[in-house]
Design brief:
249 residues; alpha+beta; Phosphorylase Kinase, domain 1; six-stranded antiparallel beta sheet; 47% helix
Length: 249
């Protein structure tokens, strides 16, 4: 720049050009305005980054909460539905087949007049404890037998009351669909009132039906809860043989 300016003879012109190009700085007012705009942009960009991180944290928390809620609801449903629907529907079919007028529903070799012996014999057949009891509330015992439920062996007791039928099923949990041990619940299938629970390898259900449809689910649930502890263990063959021997002497 110096060599070029030397070609001019006018000193005033040289001084003006040097003042204009000698410093590569913008006017102070323009520079301050540009800097203020840049600082404002930087200040507004930081909260956006912070807000974005917070939003991601809230989204992750929402996903976790939804997942936990789903697990709680599923656990609650399984606890009140301890037996799968396929097994319950098979029990309903067996109930309808066995619970009819004129069917004594008694099998040779199964005691019919002693619920303790009846339960022991049935339990030894299905290899699990059996719910066997005089249930009262006007229900008259009809008979006990081993009956198939979805092709699997079960202990089946039948009761009758004023046109109403009641079944008690005891079946190994391994023979059932989707068992939730410790669960207790009731539901209605095809106008049949069903209450059931699962306990240490066994599944126990009451099924009630009535042509007049005046049997209530809560009655069946209360009845099952009342007799939930009436489980009879499989008989000990030696003790049973000794008892039979002493009784027959």
């Amino acid at each position: 720049m110096g060599a070029t300016l030397d070609q001019f003879e006018a000193p005033e012109l040289k001084a003006a050009v040097r003042r204009l190009y000698g410093s590569e700085r913008s006017p102070a007012g323009l520079r301050q305005r540009v800097e203020s705009i840049l600082q404002a942009d930087r200040a507004s960009a930081r909260p956006m980054r912070i807000y974005g991180a917070v939003a991601l944290q809230w989204a992750a928390a929402a996903v976790i909460l939804i997942g936990l809620t789903g697990l709680v609801l599923r656990a609650s449903y399984e606890r009140t539905h301890p037996v799968g629907g396929q097994t319950l529907l098979a029990m309903v079919h067996t109930h309808d087949f066995c619970c009819r007028a004129g069917n004594a529903h008694r099998r040779p070799g199964i005691p019919q007049n002693d619920f303790a012996l009846m339960g022991q014999v049935l339990a030894s057949k299905i290899k699990e404890p059996v719910l066997a009891s005089e249930i009262g509330d006007g229900w008259k015992f009809v008979g006990a037998a081993t009956c198939p439920v979805d092709g699997k062996l079960s202990a089946h007791l039948v009761y009758f009351r004023n046109g109403q039928w009641l079944s008690i099923f005891s079946i190994p949990a391994s023979s059932c669909e989707r068992v939730r041990d410790g669960g207790f619940g009731g539901e209605r299938i095809n106008d049949h009132m069903i209450a059931g629970f699962a306990h240490t390898g066994g599944v126990y259900c009451m099924i009630g039906s009535c042509p007049q449809k005046n049997l209530k689910l809560d009655e069946i649930e209360r009845l099952l809860k009342k007799h939930q502890g009436d489980l009879v263990q499989p008989r000990q063959e030696t003790a049973f043989a000794m008892a039979e021997l002493l009784r027959n002497r």
